[in-house]
């Protein structure tokens, strides 16, 4: 009986206030840690792959839990929709605002106010635009990891135009 | 209760097999192995059929005189196989569903261990206890 109450945590609705920011703090520290432990990076080019790899692990594991009570996915689009709606709202408390696809394996996930970017800089300012990509590496890995666990091998890149909004490009690799 | 519990990975490699009677382990290994084909078959026809086939529980895979074999496939392409004694009177569909549900949450807990490398054999005490509970040995 002891084990069963452990796994009810993930599906909780909005619970408290503290857990909202804990993830952001932890994420910020992870970014700092990864950047400080890498010294060999060239000028203007940051070594973000450890961050991406952490995201991969988290995405891979979280999928195992989130999809437990879910019906089997019909196809690739169904899977991506699950990620846009359920994974996103369980992590970032909102859904992806816009999903585009060419039906040939390219998906563009558009978030108008990405949670990890909302607190840096004034809206539409370009002050921190150069630093912003380091905040997206973890999420790129997260997307790649969760897709990998669901059987879709992909590459994920991110793009920022104006600050709180960002785009994730998912390119599915067909065999 | 269950006599054998198996977890099969994405690439159909065994991740975990536990039998209540270790002397007959080979026999169970064969049974589990044979059922993988039936699972694949069920998963592939699932695309065309109606919504109820999209359930994770795959139902009875096949039965022999003394055993009944049930299957379950997660969204993450992991398959669970449970062998039950045919003579067991309490063989309701719902109870089998409950067994798989327990197994799935135990598996999710084992995978969420950050020291577990995805794709490896499962070596977890927590998972062991859950399986033992399902088999009625504890």
Textual characterization of the structure:
- The complex is a heterodimer of chains A (175) and B (138).
- Chain A is built from four helices and four strands; from the N terminus they run αααββαββ.
- Chain A is of the alpha+beta class and 175 residues long.
- Chain A has a four-stranded antiparallel β-sheet, covered by helices on one side.
- Mean pLDDT of chain A is 83; it is low at 1-12.
- Chain B has a single domain, classed as Beta-Lactamase.
- Chain B has helices spanning 25-45, 93-111, 125-135; strands at residues 2-8, 14-19, 57-63, 67-73, 79-85.
- Chain B has a five-stranded antiparallel β-sheet.
- Chain B is globular, with a radius of gyration of 14 Å.
- In chain B, 33% of the residues are buried.
- The chains are: A alpha+beta (175), B alpha+beta (138).
- Chains A and B meet through α2 of A and α2 and α3 of B.
- Chain B: Belongs to the TRAPP small subunits family. Sedlin subfamily.
- Chain B: It comes from Neodiprion lecontei (Redheaded pine sawfly).
- Chain B: InterPro entries: Longin-like_dom_sf, Sedlin, TRAPPC2L.
N-to-C order of helices and strands of chain B: EEHEEEHH
Oligomer: heterodimer
What's the number of structural domains of chain A?
A: 1
Strand content of chain A: 5-15%
Instruction: List the uncertain runs of chain A.
Output: 1-12
How confident overall, as mean pLDDT of chain A?
A: 83
Instruction: Report the principal-axis shape of chain A.
Output: globular
- Briefly note the CATH topology name of chain A: Muramoyl-pentapeptide Carboxypeptidase, domain 2
Distance between the termini of chain B: 12 Å
Largest sheet descriptor of chain B: 5 strands, antiparallel
**Helix fraction of chain B?**
25-40%
Structural class of chain A: alpha+beta
SS elements, strand count of chain A: 4
Largest sheet of chain A: 4 strands, antiparallel
In the residues of chain B, how many domains can be counted? 1
Mean pLDDT of chain B: 85
Poorly predicted tracts of residues of chain B: none
The CATH fourth-level homologous superfamily of chain A: Trafficking protein particle complex subunit 3
Q: How are helices and strands ordered from N to C of chain A?
A: HHHEEHEE
Main location (chain B): cytoplasm
Protein name (chain B): Trafficking protein particle complex subunit 2-like protein
Keywords (chain B): ER-Golgi transport, Transport
Family (chain B): Belongs to the TRAPP small subunits family. Sedlin subfamily.
């Amino acid at each position: 009986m002891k084990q069963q109450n452990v796994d009810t945590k993930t599906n909780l609705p909005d619970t408290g206030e503290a857990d909202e920011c804990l993830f952001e703090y932890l994420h910020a520290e992870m970014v700092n840690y990864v950047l400080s432990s890498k010294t060999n990076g060239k000028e203007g080019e940051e070594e973000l792959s450890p961050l991406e790899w952490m995201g991969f692990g988290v995405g891979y594991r979280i999928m195992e839990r989130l999809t437990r009570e879910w019906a089997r996915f019909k196809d690739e689009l169904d899977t991506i929709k699950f990620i846009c709606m359920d994974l996103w709202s369980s992590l970032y408390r909102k859904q992806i605002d816009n999903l585009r696809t060419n039906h040939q394996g390219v998906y563009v996930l558009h978030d108008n106010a990405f949670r990890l970017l909302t607190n840096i800089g004034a809206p539409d300012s370009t002050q921190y635009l150069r630093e912003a990509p380091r905040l997206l590496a973890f999420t790129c890995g997260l997307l790649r990891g969760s897709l990998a666990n669901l059987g879709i091998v992909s590459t994920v890149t991110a793009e920022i135009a104006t600050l709180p909004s960002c785009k994730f490009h998912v390119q599915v690799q067909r065999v | 209760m269950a006599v054998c519990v198996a977890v099969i990975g994405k690439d159909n490699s065994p991740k975990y097999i536990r039998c209540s009677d270790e002397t007959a382990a080979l026999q169970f290994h064969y049974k589990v192995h044979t059922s993988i084909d039936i699972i694949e078959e069920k998963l592939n026809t699932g695309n065309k059929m109606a919504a109820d086939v999209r359930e994770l529980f795959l139902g009875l895979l096949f039965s022999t005189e003394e055993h009944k074999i049930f299957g379950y496939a997660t969204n993450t392409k992991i398959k669970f196989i449970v062998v039950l004694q045919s003579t067991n009177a309490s063989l309701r569909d719902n109870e089998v569903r409950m067994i798989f549900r327990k197994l799935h949450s135990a598996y999710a807990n084992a995978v969420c261990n950050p020291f577990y490398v995805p794709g490896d054999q499962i070596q977890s005490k927590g998972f062991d206890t859950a399986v033992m509970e399902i088999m009625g040995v504890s």
